[in-house]
Amino acid sequence: MNWDQIQGKWEQAKGKVKEQWGKLSDDDLTQIEGKREQLAGKIQERYGYTKEQTEEELKAWERDTKW
């Protein structure tokens, strides 16, 4: 699924994001509003990941998430 589709279904995607990255709060997910860069920034902030590590995780999540 590409990011445009994820952004369009953000309300549904929030649950799957929360399953993958449980340290993100509901407020974080509301602020992100489906924006990939903001999601990446919050993941880096909450988990202390590098930008590269965050990108790898996001790409794997996008590829592997079933809708």
TrEMBL record:
Start and end residues of each CsbD-like domain: 4-55
InterPro entries xrefs: CsbD, UPF0337_stress_rsp, YjbJ, YjbJ_sf
Residue spans crossing the bilayer: none
Family: Belongs to the UPF0337 (CsbD) family.
Protein name per the record: General stress protein CsbD
The species this protein was found in: Cupriavidus lacunae
Species lineage: Bacteria, Pseudomonadati, Pseudomonadota, Betaproteobacteria, Burkholderiales
